[in-house]
Amino acid sequence: MTPVTLIFSAFGPYVEEQRIDFSNFQKEGLFLIRGETGAGKTTILDGITYALYGKSSGGMRGEMSSMRCQFAQLQQETKIEFIFSVGGKTYKFFRSLRIRKKRGTGEIEYIPQQNAFFLDEQGQWAPFFENPGIKNMEAKAQELLGLSYEQFCRVVILPQGQFENFLIAKSDEKEKILVTLFNAEKWHKIADWLCSQANDQLSKITARQTAMLESLRQWDCDTFTQAQEKQAALLKEVQQLTEKSLVAHKNLEEQKQRFDEDNRLFELFCQKEKAQIQYEVLTQRQEEIQHQTDKLEAARKASALNGMWEELSRAKQEHENRIHQERQAQEAFVKARELLKLAEAGMKEIQEQKQSCTEINQRLLKLKSLREIYKTLEETKLQLQLIVRTVENAKKQWEEAQANMEKLAAEKEAVLVKKEKISKEHIRLLFENAAEALARELKEGMPCPVCGSIHHSSAVKRQERQTENFALSQISERLEHLSSRLQSLETELQRQQEQERVRRGECERALSAQAAIAAQLNALSVQLDGDIPDAPALEKTISLLEEKTVGTEERYTAAQEELLQAQLAFERRKTIALHEAQELEKEKETFLRREKLFYQSLSFNGFLGKEQFIQARLSMEEIADLEKQLKEYEVLKNTIKVTLSGLEEQLAGKKKPEIEAAKETLAALEKDCKECDTSLILCQETSKRMQNFCQEYKKRQTELSKERESQERLRIFGVILRGDKGISLRRYVLGVMLTSIVNEANRLLKKVHGGRYQLVRTLEGVGRSRHVGLDLEVFDANSGEKRPVTGLSGGEKFLAALSLSLGLSSVVQSRSGGIQINCMFIDEGFGSLDENSIYDALEVLSTVRGSHRLVGIISHVAMLKENVPCAIEVKKSRRGSSLAIHG
C-alpha cells in the first residue's frame, strides 16, 4: 500500500480542512510528524485507521464520534478521506459524521456516513457499495490491503508504546502476520488438501469394501469361498431342471394332438346347433315377411298414381298462391285509399297555413327591431359578471393583505422580546468577560480597582473563560441576526400596510361599477319581449317564423303533387284487385276438377282414401331396399337348410366330445411345462449372475488392493507436509521468509553500536516441534552469547525493532505473491534514545531513500527535526490545530 492523500476536517483538534499530499515525501522517503505535545500528531495516524477500519491507531479512542472536534460548529460535518494505491490501482475510503438534534428532547445524535471507491478507467470514482455499513468498510479494507486491523497496526502503523510487538511476539503470533504478508496460507491449504484427499480415498475404499461385503450377504454368503461353492451347486441344479423340462414338453405335444382332433369334432357339433337355431328363427319371421310382401305390393300401386298426385298438389299450391295474391291486392287497394284521404287532409291544412302568412310577417318585423336591444343586454350581463369576479378578487386580496400585516406585526413583537432577552444575556457575559480579563491581570498583592482588595482568591479559570468567550461570540452573532431580521420585518410591515390601502381602494371602485351596471341592466329588461328571455331565443324564434313564411308556397305545390299521385295510385290498385279476384275463380275450378279425378283413381286401385294412399307411398330406393330384404331372406333360409342337412349326414353315429375336460388336461400339462421352464430360466439367470458376481468381486478385490497402496502413500505425504510429526511446510516456508527478514535486519543492525547485536532465529522449542522456529533471540558480540530479545534495554529494543520492521518491509516488497507494504508510520519511541542511538537510528532509516518506500516518524526530539528535512508540522492554537507541510 502506498498513501496518496489524507484529507480531514472537524476531526480531533483540527477544525478547518487539512490536506496531506504524501507525494511530497516520495523522493526523500523519510518524513517527520512534529509538534507540541497534545497538538494532534497521532491524530494523523488515527485519520488513516479510522478511514480504513473505523478505529483509532492505538485502539483506545472508541468510535469516530469521540474524535469529533470540540471547537467545530454544530452544522459542520466531521470528514475523513484517505486515498491510497495498491497493485497499480487507486482507492478512496471516505467517512463523515453529521450532528442533529432530536425533535422534542433536543438531544444530540450522530449520523455517520461512509463508503469506499475505486478509480475506474475513465478517471471517475466509482463506489463499491450503495449503502455500506461499518463492517462492510472494514472487510473491504482487509480485502484490498490483505491485513486485518490488528495486523495493520503491527506492520504499517506502529502505535506509541507498541513498536516492539513484532520483535517480541511468540511464534504463533508471528506466524499469523507472516502468513498474511507472504500469502503462505496456500502451503497449509495444500497439505490439508492432500490429507483430505487421502481421507476421502480411504472413505471411498472403506465404503467400497463395505459394499462388497454387503453384496456377499445378498447371496447369503459371508466369504468369497462360500459364493464360489454356491455357484457350483447352481450349475448342477440347471442340468437337472433341463432334463425335467424336456420330458414335460414331450407330454404336452402328445396331448395337443389329441385335443386338436376332439376340438374339430366339437366345432362341427356347435355349427349344427347354430344352424338349427338360425333356421328356427327364420321360420318364426314368416308372418313378418308376409306383411312386408303386402307392403311392397301396395307401394307399387301407389307408385303408379304418383304423377296424378303431384299434378293435384301443384294445382292446390297454385290455388293457395292465387288466394294470397288476391289478399295482397285487396290490402294494397285499402292502403291506397287511406293515403288518398291523408293527401286530401294535408292539402286542406296547407291552404289554411297560406292564409296565416300575413300575421307571421308582421311579427317578424317587430322581433327583428329588438335585436340591438337584446345584443346590448347580453353585453351588459357579461360586464356585470366580470365586475362581480373583480369585486370578489379585490375582497380576497384585501383580506390576505390584512392577514399578512397582522402576522408580520406578531412576528415583529416576538423578535423584539427575543432580542431583549438575548441583549440582557449579552450584557451579562460582557461584564463577566471584563471581570475575567481584569482578574487575569491581577496578581497577589495588587489592589483590585473594583473592591480594593489585595487578595484575589476567586480568580476565574482560563479554560472556563474560553468557553464563555465562545458563548459570547455566539450570542453576538445571534444579536446581529435578530437586528437584521427586525429591520427586514419593519420594512415588510410598511410594504404590507401600503398594499392593504391599495387593495381597499380597488375593492370600493369595483363595488361602485357593479351598482352602475346593475341599474343599466334593469332599464334594458323593460324593453324585452315577454316570451323571449335572451338573444339566442330571439334568433331561434325569428328563424322558425321565417321558415314558416318561406316554405309555404313550396309545401303547397308539394301537397298538390302528392294528392295527384295518391289519386293515380288508388285507381291502379283498384284495377289490380278486380283482376286478381277473376283469376282466383279460374284457379279454383281447375283444382276441383283434378281433385275429383284423383279420388276416382284411388278407388279403382283399391285405396279407401287419401290417407291410405299416403301411408302406402314409398320412394324408389325404399321399394328397392324392401325387395332386396325379401330376396335375401329366401336365399338365407334355403342356404341354412342345405347346410343343416350336410352336417346331420356328416355327424351321424358320432358323440359330442367333452371338450372342457380335454382343455383342463391340456392346461395342466402347459402349466407343468411352464413351471419347469420358469424354474430353469430363473436358475440359469441366477447361475449366470452368480458367475458374473464372482468374476466382478475378484476384479474389485485386485483394484481395491492397489487403491489402498496409493491412498497410504498420499496420506503419509500429506502428514509430512502438514507437520504432524515435525515442522509443517507452511512453518518451514515462513521460517525461510523470517530468515530473509532477519538477514536484512542484521544488515541494518551492523550500523548500530558498531554491529554489536545480531538477531537469530530460535530453532529449539517446548512441546510439539511443529510450533517452533519463528521465535527470535539476540546475539551479543561482546559476550559471544545469545539471549532473549526481551532482555534488551528500551533503546536497544527500539533499534532492533526498527531494523526488523524495515527488513520486513524490504523483504515483503521484493517478494511476489504476497501483499505490498510501501509505507510505515512510527509513533514516538525516539525519546528513550541517547544521542548516539538516535544517530544510529537515522543511519538505519536512511536506507529507505530511493527505495520507493515511505517512513513517517511521530516525534518531538530536536535531533530528528535537524536531520529530517521533510516534515508535517502540527501547529496548536486556541481555535484548533493546523498542518504545515515542509518538503
UniProtKB/TrEMBL annotation:
Q: Gene3D superfamilies annotated for this entry?
A: P-loop containing nucleotide triphosphate hydrolases
GO BP annotations, alphabetical order = double-strand break repair
Q: Which PROSITE patterns match?
A: SIGMA54_INTERACT_1
Q: Which SUPFAM superfamilies match?
A: P-loop containing nucleoside triphosphate hydrolases
Keywords, A to Z?
Coiled coil
Q: Which InterPro entries match?
A: P-loop_NTPase, Sigma_54_int_dom_ATP-bd_1
Segments forming a coiled coil: 272-329, 367-425, 472-499, 616-714
Q: Which domain of life is it from?
A: Bacteria
What's a Gene Ontology MF term here? ATP hydrolysis activity
A Pfam family annotated for this chain is: SbcC_Walker_B
Q: How does it assemble?
A: Heterodimer of SbcC and SbcD.
The family assignment reads: Belongs to the SMC family. SbcC subfamily.
Q: What is this protein called?
A: Nuclease SbcCD subunit C
